[in-house]
């Protein structure tokens, strides 16, 4: 785009120049702050990405262990162990709650698990089946912990990704649109003000020249009038014509003599 299309349509005055400079200072500071925010969010984004990769790698082994524990429990206690477990469970003991974490002005959702109430081991005494069920429960609790952590990381990952995209768009807009437009506007106002100053200077010089010529004309007229007065007096005293009086005055000026009336 040309400079004409990248500047604001403003009146080139000193006041507007000050306003544009203040806006440019604000845009520069905003660009620096948003750039720092983008860098901080990018660092946090990469850390979360590393945690997601490591959590997913460990999740496969944990899920495999929990599934194998369930198979062992079914093998020892029988296939109908599900109904026995459901009869002994009244309320959920493992729950999930959410909170928010502020990272460079971006609120990231965090999920964390907690245990509410005491865990009953009513099935432990049922031959070997109860013990196996408790081992299966422990394995699945660990799997739930990993899933909750992974869900928290994935949600934070998506939120950070959207925040980074928005921040980068603002940074690019300030850097490539707002700041160049303000700088072009300031250059345009300065150029117009310099042109007005040159016009004022030229106008003052013309006025001074006109006044000087007018003064010179008035002085010449006054001098001519004075000479006419003197010529009339000489003409009256000497009894000669006006032209002869002028000639006598011219000769006297050349000889640097005074005319005696």
Automatic annotation (TrEMBL):
Q: Print the keywords alphabetically.
A: Ion transport, Transport
Which protein is depicted? Answer: V-type proton ATPase subunit D
The record's annotation in InterPro entries points to: V_ATPase_D
- Ion transport as UniProt keyword: yes
- Residues annotated as coiled-coil are none
Q: Which family does it belong to?
A: Belongs to the V-ATPase D subunit family.
Q: Which PANTHER family match?
A: V-TYPE ATP SYNTHASE SUBUNIT D (PTHR11671)
> Per its record, what are the GO molecular function terms?
proton-transporting ATPase activity, rotational mechanism
Q: Which Gene3D superfamilies match?
A: 1.10.287.3240
């Amino acid at each position: 785009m040309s400079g004409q299309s990248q500047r604001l349509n403003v009146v080139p005055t000193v006041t507007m120049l000050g306003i544009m400079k203040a806006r440019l200072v604000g845009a520069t500071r905003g660009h620096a702050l948003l750039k720092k925010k983008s860098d901080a969010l990018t660092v946090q984004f990469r850390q979360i990405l590393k945690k997601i990769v490591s959590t997913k790698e460990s999740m496969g082994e944990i899920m495999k262990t929990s599934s194998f524990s369930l198979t062992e429990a079914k093998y020892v206690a029988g296939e109908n162990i599900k109904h026995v477990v459901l009869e002994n469970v009244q309320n959920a003991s493992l729950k999930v709650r959410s909170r928010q974490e502020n990272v460079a002005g971006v609120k990231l959702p965090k999920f964390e698990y907690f245990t509410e109430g005491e865990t009953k081991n009513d099935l432990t005494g049922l031959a070997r089946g109860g013990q196996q069920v408790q081992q299966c429960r422990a394995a699945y609790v660990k799997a739930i912990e990993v899933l909750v952590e992974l869900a928290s990381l994935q949600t934070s990952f998506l939120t950070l990704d959207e925040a980074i995209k928005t921040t980068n768009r603002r940074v690019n807009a300030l850097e490539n649109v707002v700041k160049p437009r303000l700088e072009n506007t300031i250059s345009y106002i300065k150029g117009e003000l310099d042109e007005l100053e040159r016009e004022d200077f030229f106008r003052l010089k013309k006025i001074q020249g006109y006044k000087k010529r007018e003064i010179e004309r008035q002085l010449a007229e006054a001098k001519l009038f004075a000479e006419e007065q003197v010529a009339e007096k000489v003409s009256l005293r000497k009894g000669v014509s006006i032209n002869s009086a002028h000639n006598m005055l011219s000769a006297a000026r050349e000889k640097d003599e005074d005319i005696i009336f």
